[in-house]
Every structure is written in C-alpha cells, then in structure tokens.
C-alpha cells in the first residue's frame, strides 16, 4: 500500500512538473511497467520462483566443450531453420533430443556451410547499413 501511495505522489509530482501531454505519456509508461512487473511475478510464480531445469538432451550445443564449435553450431542451427523456411522437406515436430547432430570437428562439411552462412550474413548486414547511409546522404 505504501508503494502504491508513493507511486500516486510521484505521478502527481510529474503531472505538476510536466505539461499535460508529458503526463499522459509518463502515465502510460508507468502503467505498462506495472503490467510487466505483474506478468513477470505471475510467470515466476508458475515455476515456484526457481529457474527451469533442462537436461543435456534438450540442448546438445551447451554440452559442446569448445566455445568456437558452440558458436558454429548455433550458426548452423539458425541457417538450418532459415533453410527449412525456404525448403521445408525435412520437417520434424521437435528438433531437440539430437535430431540435428552437432558439428564436432572442422572436417565436418556442415562447418563450411556455417562459415559461408556467417560470411553471407555479415555481408548482407553491412550492405544494408552501407545502403542506408548512402541513401541518407544522397538526397540531402
């Protein structure tokens, strides 16, 4: 109750200090923040305020000993999901439990696919940024 009263006092201070249009904006932000806190507490109460327990078979990449291979595996998984969106021939209801095997060495052909995907993604993002700034300065 004291937090609620202090929130009301704070909102009254803001309404006095700012104009009415700023007050409406700040009021919306406060309401959205309170709703987020309530939903977060509700979500945590479902788990009994404990973090979820995952087994190694739920996410095989976590058990990978090398950080480099872990990053490569994550990139391969992202590339695999994008490929499934474009060409959905190998569909499965659950891609956990070892359905997609890990890349365990550099000799795996999927390693090269992951590297090409990383280079392509970096090139695509840099071209987007470069094109944005060229367009911005071209018309000004």
TrEMBL record:
GO terms for biological process: endoplasmic reticulum unfolded protein response; protein O-linked glycosylation via mannose. It holds the Pfam family TMTC_DUF1736. It comes from the Eukaryota. Residues 48-120 form the DUF1736 domain. GO terms for molecular function: mannosyltransferase activity. Signal peptide: none annotated. The keyword Membrane applies. The keyword Amino-acid biosynthesis does not apply. InterPro entries: O-mannosyl-transferase_TMTC (IPR052346), TMTC_DUF1736 (IPR013618). Keywords: Membrane, Repeat, TPR repeat, Transmembrane, Transmembrane helix. The chain crosses the membrane at residues 26-46, 67-87, 111-133. GO terms for cellular component: endoplasmic reticulum. PANTHER family: PROTEIN O-MANNOSYL-TRANSFERASE TMTC4, PTHR44227. This is DUF1736 domain-containing protein. The lineage of its organism: Eukaryota, Metazoa, Ecdysozoa, Nematoda, Chromadorea.
